[in-house]
Amino acid sequence: MDRKRRQFLLLWIAETATSKRVHNFNAGPGALPLQVLERIREELLDWRGSGMSVMEMSHRSPEYESINAGAEQKLRNLLGISDDYAVIFVPGGGSMQFTMAPMNLCLPGKPVDVLHTGAWTAKAIGELKKGFLHHIAASTESEKFARLPRRDEMKFSPTK
Question: Whole-angstrom Cα distance, residue 127 to residue 110?
Fold first, then answer.
């Protein structure tokens, strides 16, 4: 574990031991360290001298673009994402992505190939049925999704 992560973890443990704050470990939003919340409070009304909150600025403004570029670079560094890949930040919760991904990534007239692997894929298919060409390339539903489809079971749409 690197030094910054160790410092963060030690700070979080110390804060938790001396605080009456509630921590949510459920799916969805989780607890933020008090130090992070305090910084947010400091910058909420005036982000770095811009005269406005991040929530008020245009997503096309130079201020917001610098936030976005910084977040992308940190993500690339943290996960080792090369420049061969695009990084996109898409708003909404997990279930919203079942709509947002096809809306942003589907090509007109081209079907989306889906490997049906369980409950989450079923939600995605439900959204695709609302107006996107799609094709179930493989499914293990008949086996109650006890395994992933094997490569020889996958039948993808032609690429041309």
Answer: 16
